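re: ur question from earlier - yeah i can do the single chain one, its not a big deal. heres the input i used so u can compare w yours
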Amino acid sequence: MLAGIVLFIAIALAVRSGMTNGFDRSILLSMRHSGDLSPKGSIEFQEMARDVTALGGTLVLSLVTIATAVFLWLDGKGRMGAFVGISVLLGSVLSTLLKDLFQRARPELVPHGMHVSNASFPSGHSMLSAVTYLTLAALLARSHERRRLKVYFVVVAVVLMVLVGLSRLYLGVHWPTDVLGGWTAGSVWAIACWMVARWLQDRHRLEAEAEHTPAGVNGTERLSRPRRTMNTALGHDRPEVTTWKLNH
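and the output i got, formated as tokens:
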């Protein structure tokens, strides 16, 4: 996480000093036709880029976060669900504060592929997609035992984050360093949330992995518990033991 913070500061300082101007211009122009500076690719591809960039918009990210929190609540992990919502909400607040701090102008080098209004650095879509998808992936990974599920959550989150960031470049609404800064800040926030979740789980403040269900070993499990009978209540006998067989 410390390396991510240092990297973000380095990107921010380079942007402030103008050191990245040549890099930013060359990347944006490489995605445009040399004549009219229109985006390379068909009209259909441009529409696909707008669809992808919507995955980093406020509405979609809010719906994804709510759906995940409800899923965790239904799965018996209400505190983890609440933690997910708070983590993403605070991450979005951080994104807004950083934009207000740097106040970088949007690129005017190429025509914009969609309407934009606020500051450019860091890219809000890139950062919020990283904040939301990586935070959700990290917390979902902390709430499941199976390694394949952990890897799946992280891979899907990274793919979505990268696609959203690239779509912002293709549409010409951000400089490349805006996207890099958004990815970095969002990743740092997700790691921080994962560390806090782990700390809380170790102290039993959040549900641990698979805490809500008994873990089977070979697909079949026997659970036993004492059942009180009339004789047991009167102190004349030992409690009977009832055995269930759970088939998975």
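Confidence is low (pLDDT under 50) at residues 213-235, 240-248. not sure if urs matches, ping me
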